[in-house]
Amino acid sequence: MTNYKQIPPLKNFDSFQFPIKNNRYEIAPGLQKIEPNDIFVKNEFYHQYLEEKKKCQQEDPAKYYCEAPGFEQEIEIVSSFLGPSSFHENCMALQEDIAIIKSGYNIAIHLSFPNHWNPTTKIGQSFFETHKPVADFEPINKATPSILKACVTKGPFERYAWGLSSDTRLNHHPLPPAGLTFNQWNGRRYQKDMYMRVERQAIVGFEKIDSFLFTIFTFFVHLQDLTKKQYHSLELAIDSMTEETLYYKGIDREKFHQYKKDFL
């Protein structure tokens, strides 16, 4: 059985943005311009992230890394932006997970830290197909052409996504490793240690090949380390979620509110 470990949570959001805006859960592109030097993250837990990536490869490389055939040239061009080695080796040296999207289709996914989704089911899919399971995503789908154009021709950008987790294990692939049950692996229980699981996503365009690089840096902040203002914003955001979004994100609203009574 692969011995995946939890990583230390951050104590606050000082290095990143608090991901909830307007005290609501919103489905929006949320693209914010960043400087080229700010695309990648390298913090004090760099080596721990890389060790967890190695464990994914030891468990089953094909479960976490896939390419669509026929796009070797595009993948090589983007890989040269990441580093001097092969695409796989470059990805293994980054704290981020990496995807390459060409003409709106996923042509390469290197995902060691999935948040309850399987990269092998997404390779070759369009933007629409990829996000079809996401609850309340219709407004974004309508704007897909303009979003994709901006990702390729403008930027670089960053955006944030978030959810709740009862552990700080980076890898939450929907298929548990051998020797673990789904309930043991799931990581969405309600207990004293509860965290915001946050993805800081960056986007870099390659206009000549109609492609863009999509990075995901995952980190955690304990709910008890949120400021009162942040926790209140989290409460309002969860209260604003539809039943479909709650189910998609694995959030039990009643248990979440009970958490405050029990532990805060």
Please give the order of strands in the largest beta sheet. Answer: 1-5-6-7-3-4-2
Discrete helix count: 11
One letter per element, helices H and strands E, the order comes to: EHHEHHEEHHHEHEEHHH
Radius of gyration: 18 Å
End-to-end Cα distance: 35 Å
Unreliable stretches (pLDDT < 50, length at least 5) are none
Helix content: 25-40%
Basic shape: globular
Structural class by SSE content: alpha+beta
- Total DSSP E strands: 7
Tally of separate domains: 1
Largest sheet entry: 7 strands, antiparallel
Overall mean pLDDT stands at 94
Q: Indicate the proportion of strand residues.
A: 15-25%
Please, could you describe this protein's structure?
34% of the residues lie in helices and 19% in strands. It is of the alpha+beta class and 264 residues long. It has one domain. Strands 1-5-6-7-3-4-2 form a 7-stranded antiparallel sheet. Strand 6 and strand 7 form a beta hairpin. The radius of gyration is 18 Å and the shape is globular.
